[in-house]
Amino acid sequence: MLLQSKDVLGLQYMPSEEISYIIESAATMKELLMQSAKKMPHLQGKSIVSLFYENSTRTRMSFELAGKYLGATVSNLGVSTSSVQKGETLLDTGKTLEAMGTDIVIIRHPLAGAPKFLGDNFSGSVLNAGDGMHEHPTQGLLDMFTMKEKFGELKGLNVTIIGDIMHSRVARSNIWGLTKLGANVTICGMDTMMPCAIERTGVTVSNNLIESVKDADVVMALRIQKERQKGGLLPSNREYHTFFGINDDVIDKCKKGVMIMHPGPVNRGVELSSAVMDADFSVIDTQVTNGVAVRMALLYILTRSKNNEA
Ligand code: CP
Known about the structure:
Elements: H1 16-33, E1 47-52, H2 58-69, E2 73-77, H3 90-99, E3 104-109, H4 114-120, E4 125-131, H5 137-151, E5 158-162, H6 169-180, E6 184-188, E7 204-206, H7 209-213, E8 218-221, H8 237-244, H9 248-253, E9 259-261, H10 274-277, H11 284-309
Parallel strand pairs: 1-2, 1-3, 3-4, 5-6, 5-8, 6-7, 8-9
Helix pairs in contact: 1-5, 1-11, 2-11, 5-6, 5-11
Bound molecules: phosphoric acid mono(formamide)ester (CP).
């Protein structure tokens, strides 16, 4: 299957068949990833550049490893030491990368819409690695892949997402993707962290943690994003943990076999207690592994689409 767009900007407008296809392809890529020799020829001759205007550990590293494992040339443009600091625009940075023969640009940017703008002005593929408070599609895909691995089906799965929904691009991508594939999504958090009219996306909204988790198959805690908060939304970390943190008392109220997820990085003791974070029902490390597999799948699918176009 070829994707309808040369770019992956979000899950809101991605057809459900494409989402399912990427998840299936990630399962195949995970088998390759688990081999001891991680050098495959799928992307030989392709050039990938990552362009991160915001900090990242997981997303940036997993894209880099995914590209390298599949044989591509992968480079990181250090934005803080690049000509962006001399005033170069995103448009001109894109043109410069295009002139160097770049096939795929992976971009994280504080402004929602920056990956779309770049994609509209770049002949290769653009992958959104997180844009402002908009979307983080590869995180949504890796989360859905992780749920499908354990539960087999997303349709009918009860998923509760807890925390700072308003600032979370992870929440948005999961909401769009999961509801499209038939999961029942509940979001839970302080009223000050809920976006307006979010129920129009098809989710159930709650501010009662125990009510929202008691029937959940999956509980996904989100990071408190202090860097995006103008202040005043959150009394204190301790108070947040008291009302919305996942600890052993909350786990006792959940169904047996509940899966605990977090996109990382975790504020230990705030969104999750240390005991819950390190428990075997917490799949944070599996999410990280699956992130490499999903990104391998996407890079391969995008370059194949491009080859077939030519
Ligand atoms: N989950 C996630 O996007 O993590 P990083 O910010 O480390 O990439």
